[in-house]
Design a protein that fits this description.
Two copies of one chain form a homodimer. Chain A has helices at residues 26-36, 66-74, 93-101, 112-121, 135-145, 150-164, 181-196, and strands spanning 14-19, 40-42, 46-47, 62-63, 78-84, 87-92, 105-109, 126-131, 172-175. With 205 residues, chain A is of the alpha/beta class. The first copy, chain A, has one domain (14-200): 3-Layer(aba) Sandwich (Rossmann fold). Chain A has a five-stranded parallel beta sheet with strand order 2-7-1-8-9, with helices on both faces. Chain A has a four-stranded mixed beta sheet with strand order 4-3-6-5. The radius of gyration of chain A is 18 Å and the shape is globular. The mean pLDDT of chain A is 89. Chain A binds chain B through residues 4-8, 128-129, 131-137, 164, 167-168, 170-175, 187, 189-191, 193-195, 197-199, 202, 205, and chain B through 4-8, 128-129, 131-137, 164, 167-168, 170-175, 187, 189-191, 193-195, 197-199, 202, 205.
């Protein structure tokens, strides 16, 4: 039987970077997103900081030693890495390349600097920035968490202001309002649906 | 009372161009889209061809005389215009500029050449191309319409092949499968939701 001449080819996989200042809710958004969007696989970062209570190795992070981490840096095994408050954090290269190569979406929840690195390595990456509704709301959320002292909150807020200045390097911006997380997730899913229709992502043209 | 420092500014309006070869179902898709997406206003084209049975003036087209049409061309009142089989068709400038200026979305169901003109005038326009699942399916759909003679179908099919070669000039491509029109409409709505989050569309940065 003669096969029909299909016009629409399969689309390539891509990286979905989600960045947000502390307190904007990126952790719970990415959890909800992974639960509802089967085409996404989360990239698990590697870190030298010790696990916090409840964190699992391979789930939240790949926990490792500074020596091994530095060895992987030398071997070119990180797409991007950074030292934050004396601890090393990095995005392993091989799993991301596998996810994207399989035509799937690799979710990277990383900071603005990491997002810029990913955009350089994967120019077709999709960069989403989550925004708090207002600066006052962000401060309130940081205070409500109650896990940090006053001067740490001040520090986080200053970091957030610096991160917000980088928003124009991102493609999409979504306001993550408290109590409306599902709406944020739906908007990210709409972005994914749109990006999968992008003609430049066709395997062959 | 001190106002909160809102980070997310309003987004600018834009043009949504939908193009598709004859028989791909763009007319019914755009009707469904207008029924479900209140942020869209359809741009009504102007033509010198006589109304067909059931067509209303101002609804389907603005019907006019060749003399008046040519006067409007001279006055620069068309964003794009073309002569097709001896009849003139054009997209009036003023209504589109009003829709976009109001922060809304102007829907233009036009051909590939028209789409290219709109992209030149409005570089931030969103261009969507509707594709038939296969060339054989397209031919079948054209034959099933039963409104055209065999040689006209042949002609439409050749035109479709030429139009399909222009697909790479479009941003998004969606396969419009028969009986799954709602899915096509949902995908266009996802594209609209994504495009409204595009940071380059913020009124101020």
């Amino acid at each position: 039987m003669k096969q029909d001449t299909v016009i629409f080819p399969p689309v390539k996989g891509f990286c979905l970077v989600v960045s947000a200042p502390s307190g904007t809710g990126k952790t719970s958004i990415s959890k909800l997103l992974l639960e509802t969007e089967p085409s996404i696989t989360r990239s698990v970062s590697m870190t030298t900081r010790p696990p916090r209570s409840g964190e699992t190795n391979g789930g939240d992070y790949h926990f490792t030693t500074p020596d091994r981490f530095r060895g992987l840096i030398k071997a070119g095994e990180f797409l991007e890495w950074a030292e934050v408050h004396g601890d090393l954090y990095g995005t392993p290269r091989t799993p991301i390349e596998q996810i994207v190569g399989d035509g799937r979406i690799a979710l990277l929840v990383i900071d603005v600097k990491g997002g810029q690195s990913i955009k350089t390595i994967f120019p077709d990456a999709v960069l989403v920035f989550l925004l708090p509704p207002s600066l006052e709301n962000l401060e309130q959320r940081l205070r409500n968490r109650g896990t940090e002292a006053g001067d740490v909150i001040e520090k986080r807020l200053n970091e957030a202001l610096i991160e917000l200045q980088c928003v124009s390097q991102y493609t999409y911006g979504i306001v993550n309002e408290e109590g409306r997380q599902q709406q944020t997730v739906d908007t990210i899913r709409a972005i994914i649906a749109a990006e999968r229709c992008r003609i430049s992502r066709w395997e062959k043209k």
